[in-house]
């Protein structure tokens, strides 16, 4: 059967992948290089779906407008996704285009984890709650680690550190999201490449009311001029790791970043009532032994112990923890395209079954 073309528009990248039914993946450089007859359908990773969109959905003009309306919550992501959706719909006008939402995986969070202590109208009428993001990545990690430990995952307690341009830490139990650091928007949680992470709302009121910053300026700074970039004097995370031993600002950036990630891991353990495995994924999580070692060094009290040699030479997917340590540690390659493609196939199959039942 023809593969699914998965369009993954992230905050810092655009990935195009042809995903076959046997999970074989082909990278694609441009949409123009793919023939329509060689594609079954097109799946789009969409970061924010809001309260209503927690299942894969067929993209029509109405849904496209809904994604655009939600761009105010995730401007870096939904805006990029919209450009990709428009280009793909133009390139493949007769194909089914299916949106798969990152927020959907976190719909299982209990109310105690997803609810903000704000007025009822804000919560119920305006939909302000903790949604969580990186859902496709975390879902894959949960499934993959269950395979690696030969456990069906019925009660497996995982903390997944998705560390990349955007970063989040998520508690997963039995394959379901229990809590996560990102909240109403992808700005929340740990510091990221250029995003601030959690910040006292009072600071936002102060910079606008007292310092005269406009709303647009505040949004720009928090999304594009904060995080590791701001702390290190304009460096990317990989550059910070290299510069940290001899550069004070790079060292501060590295300390703040790894401290906040480790602190978030510890808080997720409380949500899980314990920890069976710690997982690192995404660009930084997969490729930086230094970041992994610094985070784990702060978590020894939980039973997290790295094997230094494994950590330095690991090729995902695999373990990097010391043999016999209380908590297993893994590095897993983020495979959002596989989760998205499977969701698209299931959506199409359900539609075919429904159509068959009605005839």
For this structure, what is the CATH homologous superfamily of the largest domain?
ATPase, nucleotide binding domain
Number of contiguous helices: 14
Strand order of the largest sheet: 3-2-1-4-6-5
Give the helices and strands as they follow along the chain. Answer: EEEEEHHEHHHEEEHHHHHEHHHEEH
Distance between the termini: 24 Å
**How many strand segments?**
12
Q: Using only CA atoms, what is the Rg?
A: 21 Å
As for the number of domains, it is 2
Approximately how much beta-strand content do the residues carry? 15-25%
Instruction: Provide the CATH top-level class of the largest domain.
Output: Alpha Beta
Main β-sheet description: 6 strands, mixed
Whole-number mean pLDDT: 92
Summarize the structure.
The protein is α/β, with parallel strands linked by helices and 359 residues long. It is 42% helix and 16% strand. It is globular and about 55 Å long.
Secondary-structure topology with pairs:
Layout: E1 4-9, E2 14-19, E3 25-28, E4 41-46, E5 57-58, H1 61-69, H2 75-91, E6 97-101, H3 111-114, H4 120-125, H5 135-148, E7 157-163, E8 167-173, E9 176-180, H6 201-209, H7 215-224, H8 227-231, H9 237-243, H10 248-272, E10 277-281, H11 282-287, H12 289-297, H13 308-313, E11 318-319, E12 328-331, H14 336-358
Structure, explained:
- The protein has 359 residues and is an alpha/beta fold.
- It has 2 domains: 4-130, Nucleotidyltransferase, domain 5 (2-Layer Sandwich), CATH 3.30.420; 135-331, ATPase, nucleotide binding domain (Nucleotidyltransferase, domain 5), CATH 3.30.420.
- Helix content is 42%, strand content 16%.
- The chain has helices at 61-69, 75-91, 111-114, 120-125, 135-148, 201-209, 215-224, 227-231, 237-243, 248-272, 282-287, 289-297, 308-313, 336-358; strands at 4-9, 14-19, 25-28, 41-46, 57-58, 97-101, 157-163, 167-173, 176-180, 277-281, 318-319, 328-331.
- A 6-stranded mixed sheet has the order 3-2-1-4-6-5. A 6-stranded mixed sheet has the order 9-8-7-10-12-11, sandwiched between helices.
- Strand 2 (14-19) and strand 3 (25-28) form a beta hairpin.
- The mean pLDDT is 92.
